[in-house]
Amino acid sequence: xxxxxxxxLGTIVVVASVVAGPPAHARGPDDGYVGCSDSDDCxxxxxxxxxxxxxxxxxxxxxxxADATMKPDGTEVWICGGHGDGxxxxxxxxxxxxxxxxVGDYPTSVCFTDDSRLALVASRGDDSVVLIDTNTYxxxxxxxxxxGSGGTYDxxxxxxxxxxxxxxxxxxxxxxSIYEIARDASEVTRAAQVGVNLWQLVxxxxxxxxxxxxxxxxxxxxxxxxxxxxxxxxxxxxxPWGIDVTRxxxxxxxxxxxxxxxxxxxxxxxxxxxxxxxxxxxxxxxxILDSADLAYIAGGKLQTGADTYVYVLDLATNQLIWQFALTxxxxxxxxVQGQMTSALTDVPDGGQTPxxxxxxxxxxPFNPRTSIEYVxxxxxxxxxxxxxxxxxxxxxxxxGWREAGVHIATWDGRTTRGEPASSGVYxxxxxxAGERRSVKSVLLK
Length: 445
Description:
The protein is built from no helices and 37 strands. The protein is an all-beta fold.
C-alpha cells in the first residue's frame, strides 16, 4: 500500500508495505542519550525500538548541553553544560544523575584518556582543559591551552582521543589551531594552524589522520597525525557540525547544520555522498554504533515550537532508515556508543603501522559485516580467506597480486556459495610472501 512519509525535500510517496516499527537489527547498549539545548535535559531512548524514556533534568550545571560522551565501558554518559559551567554524569544502568561537577567557564567537550582514569573537559572561557579523576570524581588540576585564535571564541573546543598513540587532540573553538596533548594529559606537546573556524574532530582508528570540521570554509580537513599538516580538504555543504568515523576507519558521517543534509565520506578515495533529510532540519552532532552499522544524528529543531528529531542512518546502504521525535526540545548532542580506545582496535601500541606482514579485523565481534585490513611489506601474491575452527574453507575473499602497503577487504558473513554463515568463531587467514597470519573473528546474529 502507499504510505505518506514526510521527509526529504518535502513530501514523498513511497510504495511499500506499512512499517510497523523501527528496524530490528539495531544492537548495542540499551539506550542512547540526547542532550537538548532548549529544554536543558537529556532524553534516553531505546536503541531497539527508539522509544524515549523520561527526560533527565540537567540544570543547573548542564545548562546548554554542548557535548555528550559515553565512557569507554558504557557505564556512564558525561554531558557538558556550556552555560551551566559544569558536567552532569548519568549512570546508564539506572538513567539517573550520579554526579554534578563545576569545572570552569563554559565547558565545551569531554574526552577520556585511553585507560579511562582521567576525564578531560575543555573549558573555553578559561583557556584550559580540566582533569577529573573518574574513580573519585574529583577535579585534580587543569592544563593551560593557549588557543591563539583571539576574539570572541578564544579557548579550546572539542577533544578527541587517538586510540593508537593514546594522545588527545583539541581544536580551537571557532579558531584555526589544533593541539596535541600527552597521553597522561600532562602537557601540550604540539600545535599547528590547520583551518579557519574549526569545530568538531575525530581521530582515524588506525592512527593516520585527524578529521576536523571547519565551519568557516564548509569543509572537512584531513590532518596527517604524524606531522599535523593538512593532507586534503573535502568540500561539504553549509556549516558542517559533527563528525564521526566507523571503527574500521573507512567512512565518515558529517551533519551540515544549515543545509539540512548529511555528507558521507569514503576515506579510501575521499569521495562524498550528500543525503538530504527533513526540510528545515538542523542536524548537529552524530555518533556511530559500530555493532549495528548505524549512525544516529541529533537533528536540532525544524522550526520554533516543532518537534525535535533523531535520524538513523544505515551505513551499509548509506540511507536514512528511521526518524523519531523526542520529548526534549532542540536535540543538540548525542551519545550511543562508548568512546573508542586502544582496546577496541587491533593496531599495535605506539602509533606505527607494522613494518612486516600484518592482519586485523574490525569490528569484532561483528554483524553483518567486518572490515579486514592487511599490510604487505613488499608486493606479491596474496590469498585471503575465512576458515571455520576445523580449518574448512568458508569464504575466499581475495587472491592475486597486490602492491606493498595497506589493503582493506570486507567479509559480509556469507560463504563462498553466497549462503549466510552461522553465528560463531571463524579465522581470517592471510598468506603472502611465504608467511601466514591468522586472526579470530566472531560473527554474532
